[in-house]
RNA sequence: GGGGGCGUAGCUCAGCUGGUUAGAGCACUCGACUGUCACUCGAGAGGUCGCGGGUUCGAGCCCCGUCGCUCCCGCCA
């Protein structure tokens, strides 16, 4: 007998039901349950235990009227987090004994037999937490992950993660995408992030690399005619961490053949919609779009948060006629004066505006110019140079504050981006409930090093340039746009991709522009992909989503570490199993590796784990 | 690589301007309790104040170094 479809899946030889799904409809049934002692209350004559399993909690009741004395004393003695098997009758609680805060609160199980099958030592961290209890330090949660993972909140996150994976698989499989695997032991890629290296025992002095992404392989699948590929792929990057960045992370990796940009974008919209619906959220059928150029121009950022407007403006023409050295010099050197008008910002104190300037300076700006209009008067360093025309052109309402950066765009954009975000936060313009999706289109193909002028690929070297741009500006590749796109939500990048170069001639040109024109060098780095492309490549392209980040957003978790079962710390350490560890000299010798004594980490305080 | 924050009992924290024997709540142990649901009540046990060095008559507190966690910049798509 089962009370729900899930219940029937979870019944086993040892249990008839699970804890969290028992309801009034189960009253009268004799059930066998297994679970962890979440909490217990010993009233002397009566004992209550809240029993927990993946599905939730149910109250077990032990009393002399239905429980044998030895069973009751065993119940009183069992410690929290011990695993027990019980048998008893599901009973309706009297109305004044109902617990409305528990889904199972209308019933309890009157236990007749109890077996402690997994006695637990006193837990190092509390699993059951009272209202208002603070969370244990993250360090301890990670060190005792076997306890932290028992917490219903974390279990809910991982369950959601599972469901999102299944939705992804179904969505893509239903559309003809094949889930194909690619190697974990692969070849170092010179592009992008640092690789994790794995020494080869068989080949002295040679190394595998863990993949930063399956990029090259998925393109090869296209060359091989698999037409549509996806993978929920583990990727590795040996870079410093953030709250939303782990050294080992999961991507939804997608590639398709005989497609153009729109095909991938509508697939992406559909997949995001399916994921959002699975988590009980809404996502629009089509996302707003913005060019990279506009994003940088109006928001100073390639992933603008569209929950608020507060756009940047170009004030160069307003400043041009003014006899103001700071801005005239900037304008004379070819830079612009950009800024934003903050409604109501005139009310901010000198100190508050100084804080904004500190943000701008932190992003590389020399300073932040201010112009305030309060009580009909203008003040700030710009004020005394104002002409009537300029005054009108700024368009400040009374109470407004205008902030400017006079610098090249590559400096003013990030500076004003930070200022804009902080202003929005202060003005409480950010609607936390809002979800504003955005497709950022037409990224530039190359990034120019400001000092050397060398070109670097913004996306990666296999991204296809806009054909029209190649035609229109054949000799100024810095102006080429790429057929690349990002999916952005509320200022966070969810994923990105591009149409790839399938024409070997274009690919060679790209390499030449990137300074790897030497064919031997190309072969050394990307030979196996180039071979594949030359052997007949269909037009293809794809996209990849940061799966952990999506799971984090949809679960409302504050950190990636709360949607990954066994995450690393910001020092890329695993406190639970204690990785990484020093390795005995013999093991290193077998790998043909010697570690310089000076570079041995002397972490006296490193986790005393299982090394 | 750089900057900020944190580190005191198993957990969360307090600890005054450097001064007697380092405290509280929860958890734990023992005892009492027949309707609790963060049960309640009584008693008890529990400390290398992250680690090392220094200043001082005296350091949880000040200084230097170091380890760990965390947030951010650089880095990373």
Characterization of this structure:
The protein has 611 residues and is of the alpha+beta class. 29% of the residues lie in helices and 22% in strands. The protein is built from 18 helices and 22 strands. It has helices at residues 5-10, 69-77, 138-143, 145-148, 152-174, 215-223, 261-278, 292-299, 316-319, 325-332, 350-362, 388-394, 409-426, 467-472, 504-513, 519-534, 547-555, 585-590; strands at residues 30-42, 47-53, 56-62, 83-92, 107-118, 178-179, 197-199, 207-209, 228-236, 248-257, 288-291, 313-314, 336-342, 369-374, 377-379, 401-407, 437-441, 446-448, 455-457, 484-489, 492-499, 540-546. The protein has an 8-stranded mixed β-sheet with strand order 6-9-10-22-21-20-17-11, sandwiched between helices. The protein has a 5-stranded mixed β-barrel with strand order 1-2-3-5-4. A hairpin with a 2-residue loop joins β20 (484-489) and β21 (492-499). α5 crosses α17, α6 packs across α16 (519-534) and α11 crosses α13 (409-426). It is globular. The model is unreliable at 602-611 (pLDDT under 50). The protein binds one RNA strand of 77 nucleotides through β1, β2, α3 and β21.
Strand content: 15-25%
Contiguous runs where pLDDT drops below 50 for at least 5 residues = 602-611
Mean pLDDT: 91
Give the N-terminus to C-terminus distance in angstroms: 48 Å
Biggest β-sheet strands, sense, barrel: 8 strands, mixed
Structural class, from secondary structure content? alpha+beta
Number of helices: 18
Helical fraction equals 25-40%
Query: Order of strands in the sheet with the most strands?
Result: 6-9-10-22-21-20-17-11
Q: Judging from the principal axes of the Cα atoms, what is the shape?
A: globular
Radius of gyration: 30 Å
Number of distinct beta strands = 22
